[in-house]
Design brief:
436 residues, mainly alpha, 58% helix, three-stranded mixed sheet, HSP40/DNAj peptide-binding domain
Length: 436
């Protein structure tokens, strides 16, 4: 009598690691902290300008990176026994619809900074882009992650600065939006999650972590939030904003001074450019002083400026403040240089002799704009021995650039010779003497 063949083995169940749910819940908790602080700043309830504060901005980046890394981990877990296409497409449709809802809602609530490619947009697109990488060797995926992180620093073209291509992540133009998570470099986080999961999963079989279940109430809450992260993400901000608006109705805060409100708005706008927080605060303070001195303060606040006054405000808000900021910066350089002027002078001359083939420009007079005939040059800030470290600037295909050290604005003028500039006294001619 022949033996009865054993029944076919049941397919292994899909592995769901509750530790991953808890990790996603922790990322949600961090997001709650950031968004609540953001809302407090938006309503003027705290002094900190959260969108412009470097520490808060890095915190937001870490949160976004953790979410996208977990997207890669979840894709590996969900496809261990093959891609469940109906389930994947259902989840993708939910995320894409939620992203579209966020764009629609913010276009009405904050039209000047609406979210056109935020974290949900990236999760939707990244989930599709990552599918081919699930079949590649781990080394290849790791290499692709490195390339994704590096591409924004290697790719530049005027066409990529167009607003309709900003979502790719290659634009060098200022982008004003409440949440921006472009494809590059952030897709590198999704690929990193794939690498991490594929390296770790073989070692998790039968481990305590694979069998772990949350026992305490906080851990169970975190795991529940991680399992329903999309719903929690969509609900939490309306809840925060509604609670704050109700609290403000019940206990109205002290009205913010007109000057403080203007300063916060000015610094938030300035923070989207190349200047740092301290430089923006100085420039905005100078703008307020200039508007009051020219009797344009009240008209500016009430938005009743006529065309002539608007031109005057623009003139006050840029060159005058830039001159003051640069004058203060130059004074600081000079004070520091006097402590060791002889050493600095020799170092400056040695640097000049080393790079004498490149035009050098300075802003000793503190002018608002220097027009130059070269796209590649050195900014030295002020005349030696009070010059700052010589900074090599390359406009590339752009027509202007800001020195990151002294905030001097340079604009390219094709009518000028390579080593010439306007005003002409901003050219540093000691390079020619050193070369001779």
């Amino acid at each position: 009598m022949s033996a009865v063949p054993p029944p076919p083995a049941a397919p292994s169940p899909r592995l769901r690691l509750e530790a991953v749910d808890c990790a996603r819940g922790l990322a949600l908790l961090a997001m709650f902290v950031f968004h609540f602080a953001y809302d407090l700043s938006y309503f003027g309830l705290i002094e900190t300008d959260v969108p412009a504060e470097p520490g808060w901005r890095w915190f937001a980046r870490l949160i976004a990176g953790s979410f996208l890394t977990l997207v890669g981990v979840s894709l590996v877990l969900a496809t261990r026994n093959g891609l469940n296409r109906p389930a994947f497409l259902k989840r993708l449709a939910m995320v894409a619809s939620a992203a579209a809802l966020v764009t629609l809602a913010t276009s009405f609530a904050m039209p000047r900074s609406f979210i056109f490619f935020g974290i949900l947009h990236h999760v939707a697109l990244g989930s599709v882009l990552a599918l081919p990488f699930l079949r590649l060797p781990v080394v290849a995926v790791a290499g692709a992650a490195i390339i994704a992180f590096a591409l924004p620093f290697l790719v530049a073209h005027p066409l990529l600065d167009e607003p309709w291509l900003a979502w790719l992540g290659f634009s060098r133009a200022p982008i004003v939006t409440a949440d921006f998570v472009p494809v590059f470099p952030w897709f590198g986080c999704v690929l990193s999650g794939i690498v991490l999961a594929r390296l770790a999963l073989p070692r998790l079989a039968g481990s305590r972590l694979a069998a772990w279940h949350p026992a305490s109430l906080p851990a169970r809450i975190l795991a529940w939030g991680g399992r329903h992260s999309l719903l929690v993400y969509l609900v939490h901000q309306p809840v925060f904003i509604g609670a704050l608006m109700l609290a403000l109705q019940l206990n109205p805060p002290q009205p913010m001074s007109e000057e403080r409100g203007f300063m916060l708005s000015c610094q938030r706008s300035c923070g989207t450019g190349p200047l740092g927080v301290d430089a923006c605060e100085r420039l905005c303070t100078c703008t307020v002083d200039s508007l009051k001195r020219e009797s344009l303060w009240r008209e500016t606040l009430t938005d009743t400026l006529d065309p002539t006054q608007r031109e005057r405000v623009s003139a006050l808000a840029q060159p005058a403040c830039a001159r003051r900021h640069r004058a203060e910066t130059i004074a600081h350089w000079r004070q520091a240089a006097r402590r060791d002027s002889l050493r600095r002078h020799h170092e400056a001359r040695a640097t000049i002799m080393a790079d004498h083939g490149i035009p050098h420009f300075h802003n000793d007079k503190g002018v608002a704009v220097i027009h130059v005939g070269a796209r590649e040059f050195m900014c030295i800030g002020a005349k030696p021995p009070f010059d700052h470290p010589h900074v090599y600037l390359d406009m590339g295909a752009d027509h202007e650039i800001v020195c990151p050290y002294c905030s001097t604005l340079y604009k390219f003028d094709a009518s000028l010779k390579a080593g010439a500039c306007s005003p002409p006294e901003c050219a540093h001619h000691e390079t020619a003497q050193a070369a001779a």
